[in-house]
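Re: duplicated header lines in exported structure tokens

Our pipeline writes sequence and tokens for each protein into one text file. With two proteins the header for the second block appears twice in some exports. Here is an export where it did not happen, for reference. First protein block:
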Amino acid sequence: MEPTDEIRERMEAALRNFVEGRIVRSSSLPTADLSIRKLTAVEALSRNRKADVKLLSSISIDPNLWPTSAVIDWLNILQNMADIPKRESVGGRPNRSSGPASIFRGQNWGFQRKALIIYGGSWFQTTSMPSG
């Protein structure tokens, strides 16, 4: 069921206000994920061509530091927003990523994940495993 135009406009306005800092949502967990949440909001707006480049000004664009979900959001933003200046210098083409969790082989692009082992309260990172 599609939302009415009025509801869609209110949702889009709320997303825009969040990205612009007019709506502040704090988390009960002490995390530094505000830029990631803003990126997700911009991606949602970009799907309906309601995002503009100004919204990206408050987000630090560094896919190498982002989780896989944020890299996917960024690739969608690049695909949906043709007016991003210097697209190559701010994250690459929409069909590849400089993110640490990505694999680019020829024309295939995918993600890898790391296996974690928890032992005695400490965790150890093992070799990469292909996601599947």
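Second protein block, exported in the same file:
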Amino acid sequence: MISRRRSSIGCSSADGCFTSTAQRCAPSTSALTIPPLQRHPQTKWSEYPEFHGQNYRNPHMPESERRSAYDPTRAALYRPGDADDFFVRTGRGGTPALCAELARLAYCNDGERRRRSLERVELVERAFLDIDGTQVLVAVGGGRAFVAFRGTDDPKAVWRDLEAWFTPWERGGRVHTGFAKYLSPVRAALSQVVEALAGDDLVFTGHSLGAAAATLAESLWPRATLCTFGSPRVGDAGFAATVPAERVDRFVDCCDKVCQVPPEGLGYVHVGALRYINRDSVVVNAPTAEEIELDQGAGQKTYLRRHAWVVWRNVLSRSLADHAPINYVVAL
């Protein structure tokens, strides 16, 4: 059984720590100096296209390698933070790919492993917030600041997922009650984070429940850009209007069931442009509903043939397996 974490804020060797009523850390006397972001031999930053106006197939990963990289295991879905291969794949770079790995890294409780992983892409952990069941990783480098929210990984977070009734949102419209409660413990600390990083380009990101929290944060601090993975619907149309759609990339991996809840029939809508990842891990912009339905059907059949029968190791359904953070990383 997963133990409940104490409320805390982890501080790096920065020139200050973001505090909360849960715990306060004294700032260090040394100032944090972040070197300009240089091209890393593994990441190839300058060669990576953004996802606007065209489909994207990772040029560094042939189709056969993408298929072998797809991870159908229960470990990939339920224990993404146990991995130690963050940012190690060749051809990684650009904001969406970087955010996908940061969203996965946010599940990691090992501070040394996070530090070592971030070094691979010349980022520094500025803070790690862990307050009353909500975790947020803040990483900085090269004039950019990334705020990555962790998704569901303990019983308290599961309960937040189930509180699907609406509550009024201060910026407008209504939002999922559980998602608002998940963000609430870290809001004061996040306000300090955003203020301290005023000179950096700010990016919110997250996976699953973390994607929902990042979407709420984007509504509160709309100067940021937002990149989400496996996000559920967060609020109604009134709430969606508070989020600048042109600053949002919302990735959905083929059959990922989490992206289909809560149902539209309850008044929920998605926020931002859809970046659809098809069954072959190719990012497709603006597919039609018919194209998505056909692709999902073919993907389910392929999963049954290749993976579902390995019941002692793999997730039984592609609707859940596609939600694993690593399967978003593979496509980018």
